[in-house]
Design brief:
about 400 residues; transferase; acyltransferase; about 70% helix; single chain
Length: about 400
């Protein structure tokens, strides 16, 4: 593929969405007890209020991460910068992904088991949980796919399994085209989600390895790959779309419809459709945002939000541990959580910054660029496509959370 100027850089809109996604997830975990109809926390937030409704649905930041991961992981391959043409290419990809994801993941696993294991070392439940965490297979957890010592790690496991599937998807796209793969993945994931949702599990509700694992989540990553493909096609035309408004409006309408169906539909199949519509809606909104200007652009690619997006993997990995120590799940008063919110924020940002610098990117010398403090290079723009680009693409290409 011919080199296109300006595509070496990190896309600010994607980092901005990552920042929004991590804020959603952290706020959800902090405040969802007060938004739920839980006797321990009842009456502290109006369950029918706007804030409670937002908090109850803020877990949807995780599907946003999955779509964004598919986009960013596929981008260097779609641009032709990387290839999957031999076993050596596959091996190099796996080494890159293992180096990127596993050091931080396993460090957090060890800390989680040390501080928050539900039973003592040597018990059967301890071995089951430890085995699930180290293997990223959480099917033996009594909490249903959510490891009890650190429930947030389930989605990192899904990211790891998608990384294992990624070379296969690249080859499948080359053979049958991305449209066929998107349709096939949507169909397969919907079947797994429906089957998992039809299996009642005590104290959990459904069989989450199917509804929440890679079986039911793979389509979200593939939707991100589709957005990437459309984005690069647009770059190759050397012009921006005449308007991003249709994609943005379609995403907004489908998102509202998807949320309504997933919460209020009587039939499981329709609720499954609603959940998938939400991810499709975000994919449309992401595509429109990549070419948007004005207020939306300025909101998404501002540096503080981008920096949260850059550090989102570390923030995500550590926030559960810090929250469980500073704000235990049995904290019954909203006022206590609000009082501890400021020190929690300072501590998680400091810990995540150290983790981001020395664990995620300890091999990078230019720490200022990692924190977006270096003077940004002015990248040549593609015709009239005013793309939000910055100077650290190599630090983010192929990255997830």
């Amino acid at each position: 593929m011919q080199h296109r100027p300006g595509t070496d850089a990190k896309i600010g809109v994607v980092n901005g969405f990552r920042g929004i996604a991590i804020l959603m997830v952290v706020l959800h975990h902090l405040f969802v007890p007060y938004a739920a109809k839980d006797p321990l926390h009842t009456g502290q937030l109006d369950p029918d209020g706007i804030f409670a409704a937002f908090i109850a649905n803020a877990w949807l930041g995780v599907p946003l991460f999955f779509v964004l991961s598919g986009f960013v992981l596929y981008l260097p391959y779609r641009l032709g910068r990387r290839k999957v043409e031999s076993l050596a290419d596959v091996r190099l990809f796996y080494l890159h992904r293992a180096h990127r994801l596993l050091p931080l993941y396993y460090l957090v696993v060890l800390v989680s088991l040390t501080l928050h294991a539900q039973t003592g070392v040597g018990s059967l439940r301890w071995y089951l949980e430890a085995g699930g965490l180290f293997s990223t297979l959480f099917v033996f957890s009594p909490h249903g796919f959510m490891p009890p010592s650190n429930v947030v790690l389930w989605s990192v496991g899904v990211e790891i399994w998608f990384s294992l599937l990624f070379p296969v998807l690249i080859l499948a796209i080359r053979r049958w085209g991305i449209g066929t793969i998107v349709v096939a993945t949507l169909a397969a994931s919907s079947i797994f989600i429906f089957i998992g949702g039809s299996i009642p599990i005590a104290n959990v509700g459904s069989f989450r390895p199917f509804t929440s694992g890679i079986f039911g989540s793979c389509y979200q990553f593939v939707l991100g790959m589709l957005v990437c493909d459309l984005y690069v096609r647009q770059l190759e035309k050397l012009k921006r779309p005449t308007s991003s408004l249709p994609s943005l409006l379609a995403g907004l309408v489908l998102g509202v419809l998807g949320l309504y169906l997933s919460h209020h539909a009587s039939w499981l199949a329709v609720r499954v459709l609603g959940g998938m519509l939400f991810s499709i809606a975000f994919s449309l909104f992401l595509f429109g945002s990549l070419f948007a200007g004005g207020l939306l652009r300025s909101l998404l690619d501002n540096r503080p939000l981008q920096l949260l997006g850059c550090m989102c993997y570390s923030i995500y990995a550590w926030h559960g541990i810090v929250m469980n120590n500073m704000i235990p799940p049995d904290t019954s008063m909203l006022a206590d959580t609000m009082r501890l919110l400021a020190p929690f924020t300072v501590l998680i940002l400091a810990l995540s910054a150290l983790s981001y610098r020395y664990i995620e990117f300890g091999h990078r010398r230019d720490w200022k660029a990692l924190f977006l403090l270096g003077k940004a290079e002015v990248q040549p723009q593609l015709a009239s496509a005013t793309l939000p680009l910055t100077n650290e693409w190599r630090a983010s290409q192929g990255e997830t959370m």
